Amino acid sequence: RRNLVxxxxxxxxxxxxxxxxxxxxxxxxxxxxxxxxxxxxxxDRQTSGLEKFLNKFNLQYSLLKSxxxxxxxKVVGKPRGVGARRASLEWLRLxxxxxxxxxxxxxxxxxSDIFRQMQRTKKVSMWPVGLVTELGVSSxxxxxxxVIGFYDGWRAYRKFPVDMAGFAINLKLIHAKxxxxxxWVAGYEEDEILRSLGITLNDIQPLASNCTEILVWHTKSxxxxxxxxxxxxKTNLEEST
Length: 241
Ligand code: UDP
Ligand code: MN
Known about the structure:
Elements: E1 4-11, H1 17-29, E2 35-42, H2 50-55, E3 61-66, H3 82-94, E4 99-103, E5 109-110, H4 113-118, E6 124-126, E7 129-130, E8 137-143, E9 146-151, E10 167-170, H5 171-176, H6 189-196, E11 204-206, H7 208-211, E12 216-217, H8 226-229
Parallel strand pairs: 1-2, 1-4, 2-3, 6-11
Antiparallel strand pairs: 4-10, 5-12, 6-10, 7-8, 8-9
This protein binds uridine-5'-diphosphate and manganese (II) ion.
């Protein structure tokens, strides 16, 4: 079977959910022959009739559910999407799928070309992500085709200071390293899973023309309290003659 890219998207019910997923679905449609979309619904945030929405698109998908253990509600920084990504890894391992896994949050913006490129991931591939931290970009630093370090606005105590949207993993590694997973610690999800795969800088394939192009952006929707604003019903019907 062809090597598919399993695109894992944690998602939860809110007014922006369908617009965000529509944008992502349309990026995936450009390359639908090489994608299996793994949409993972956060059931803590209520169910949202996603099946019907997903069926509109000519996309191969699976809809999974994830629940966050209550004890993590009080954790500082509140890890977001972690339960979903953990559930997807469990599912990918259970079915022993081959191909590549990529963690694609619902609110980011993706140039379809990055999906084409990541299909060739041998172990781990990486590329820049735009609009992340106050530096505006997070990127591997590449010299002579090799990743030698990282440029990122939040170094913290990370060996791999990268954004979730900036790497893909060949599933062979996920199956080989059975305990590799994402922790319930906000900010350390990327570093922890990459460390647990036991990779070195040499194993990282730089994509996006040796990390000189931005094909993924960490976009965020402006926060709005829609329900409050909908309180006063105003139409222009009275004005019409
Ligand atoms: N998410 C989720 N449940 C939540 C909050 C977020 O499933 O309670 C998902 C969200 O849809 C997104 C991912 O987790 O795909 C990351 O969340 P968000 O974009 O809010 O995080 P940020 O980009 O601000 O780190
Ligand atoms: Mn986001």
